[in-house]
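for the recovery benchmark. tokens below, seq after
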């Protein structure tokens, strides 16, 4: 017979492990990918794989485990691209070109469809935010990060608090955004 304390310890361990996988599934910032999901991706899911001191450094995941492009993740990695640390600057250029090619194809489809109603800056995803005039991946990520770090936008004018959104950009998007 197994002592009760061992059974309860084992059950607690299983519960914590299950909670880690359930909660961890959405722990990635914006893109919704956990570190575990990224770790399990094949190298082909990344823009560039570098090797330093015998260890792989995989940069900019943007394809899912099945090889499909994840537009939300693509926009996120482009919006945070300058945060990457590169072993070789030539690889940075290769990755940037690779990601930009994907983005150009994505945004061409988005622009062809056009905006369908207003974009809610309190709840819409990166894929909707980049459809706004003058809003690219960097500003889209800044909007998401701002609303995640503070409470939601009370008025559309608050979007001007984001670095990079001045009067000209605000005037370009003001009729296309909403907060409710």
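predicted aa per position
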């Amino acid at each position: 017979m197994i002592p009760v304390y061992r059974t309860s310890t084992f059950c607690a361990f299983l519960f914590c492990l299950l909670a880690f996988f359930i909660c961890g599934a959405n722990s990635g910032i914006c893109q919704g990918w956990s570190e575990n999901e990224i770790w399990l991706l094949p190298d082909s899911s990344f823009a560039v794989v570098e090797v330093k001191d015998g260890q792989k450094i995989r940069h900019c995941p943007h394809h899912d485990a099945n090889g499909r492009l994840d537009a939300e993740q693509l926009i996120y990695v482009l919006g945070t691209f300058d945060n990457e640390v590169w072993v070789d600057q030539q690889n940075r250029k290769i990755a940037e070109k690779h990601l930009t090619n994907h983005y150009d194809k994505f945004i061409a489809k988005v622009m062809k469809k056009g905006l369908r109603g207003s974009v809610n800056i309190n709840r819409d995803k990166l894929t909707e935010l980049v459809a706004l005039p003058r809003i690219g991946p960097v500003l889209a990520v800044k909007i998401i990060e701002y609303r995640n770090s503070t409470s939601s936008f009370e008025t559309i004018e608050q979007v001007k608090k984001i670095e990079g959104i001045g009067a000209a950009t605000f005037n370009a998007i003001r009729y296309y955004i909403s907060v409710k």
